[in-house]
Design a protein that fits this description.
The complex is a heterodimer of chains A (about 150) and B (about 150).
Chain A (H helix, E strand, L loop, with lengths): L2 H4 L13 H11 L3 E5 L5 E6 H11 L9 H13 L2 H4 L13 H10 L4 E6 L2 E7 H9 L11
Antiparallel strand pairs in A: 1-2, 3-4
Chain B lengths: L2 H4 L13 H11 L3 E5 L5 E6 H6 L6 H6 L7 H12 L3 H4 L6 E3 L4 H11 L3 E6 L2 E7 H10 L9
Parallel strand pairs in B: 3-4
Antiparallel strand pairs in B: 1-2, 4-5
Classes of the chains: A alpha+beta (about 150), B alpha+beta (about 150).
Chain lengths: ~150, ~150
């Protein structure tokens, strides 16, 4: 089984200029945990994940709680919401190509602790594989054996 | 902002003897990445995550890879491994130390905890009983909402 058998072809993407508040909205509305950032030609520039966003919140928000300093908390929050995809995306791109085998995909996801892997053809995005896609393959009964003689 | 303000209260749970195939269906149906395993008293005794399922017995060890001269499993072997995995129970594959917080835990502290431990969710308990879960998505939802509209009196 290879990347092309598992991948989702309709990928929700954002541009470098997309603000964080819009990214959060896309993630929550589509119940996904990350999005590729692409340019006009479909070239993948990076990935923005909910982990990147939570990390950003954690590092930018005052360590005092919301209740202790509400004003500061809100100011910081607005700053974060206005940040763009380009500023927070991971550019250290880990990806698969259409013929990457499933074991390699699973290994990459676990070793690199990532939840999704973009599938690229000549640097352009053609699909995405989530951990859920790998799980589906565990459930799938093996397809019927191919006829030996054709 | 505290855990109880952002947590999801309807937690999808499984029991020790829930088959792995049912857990996979739960994860896919509800689009979640892990389920707590609870006992009869609704106390958390472990957790099963996507990572546990992807990892368990499905990946060849480096030694196996060398033995197979770097070749991956063929499709029959893979199907066999998957079939075995589907027949196992939650208790066979769960991680038995789940991370829990209290309802009044601060959200920023929870965010730190998730990052430090490299986990995606914490369970919220009252006494020992499970009352909610806070995922990264819950934190983002809380942040997207907070400060919009009226301000609550403290």
């Amino acid at each position: 089984m290879q990347a092309k058998d598992l991948m989702t072809k309709e990928v929700i993407t954002v541009k470098k200029e997309t603000p964080v508040r819009e990214i959060i909205d896309l993630l929550l509305r589509n119940r996904i945990t990350g999005l590729p950032v692409v340019d006009e030609t479909g070239k993948v520039l990076g990935i923005v994940s909910e982990s990147d966003l939570v990390y950003k919140l954690e590092t930018m928000l005052p360590t005092t709680s919301y209740w202790a300093d509400r004003k500061k908390f809100k100011e910081e929050r607005w700053k974060i919401m206005a940040t763009t995809a380009g500023e927070i995306m991971s550019t250290n791109l880990i990806y698969a190509t259409e013929d990457t085998p499933i074991e390699e995909i699973a290994t990459l996801m676990l070793e690199k602790r990532i939840k999704r892997l973009p599938v690229l053809r000549d640097g352009k995005l053609v699909g995405i594989i989530s951990r859920a896609d790998v799980l589906k393959s565990i459930l799938a009964e093996p397809s019927q054996a191919r006829p030996v003689c054709e | 902002m505290e855990a109880k303000g952002i947590m999801t209260r309807d937690v999808i749970v499984a029991k020790r003897d829930t088959p792995v195939s049912d857990i996979i269906h739960l994860l896919l149906k509800h689009r979640i990445s892990g389920v707590p395993i609870v006992n009869e008293e609704n106390e958390v005794i472990g957790v099963v995550t996507e990572a546990d399922l992807i990892q368990k017995k499905k990946l060849p060890t480096p030694l196996e890879l060398i033995y197979n001269l770097g070749r991956y499993m063929n499709s029959e072997q893979l199907a066999e491994e998957h079939k075995k995995l589907r027949g196992e129970k939650a208790a066979d594959i769960m991680t038995s130390n789940a991370i829990c917080v209290k309802e009044d835990s601060d959200v920023v502290k929870i965010a730190s905890l998730l990052i430090k431990k490299g986990i995606k969710r914490v369970f919220v308990t009252r006494g020992k009983k499970l009352v909610g879960v806070v995922s990264k998505a819950d934190i983002l939802r809380g942040m997207a909402k907070s400060g919009e509209g009226s301000t609550r009196a403290s």
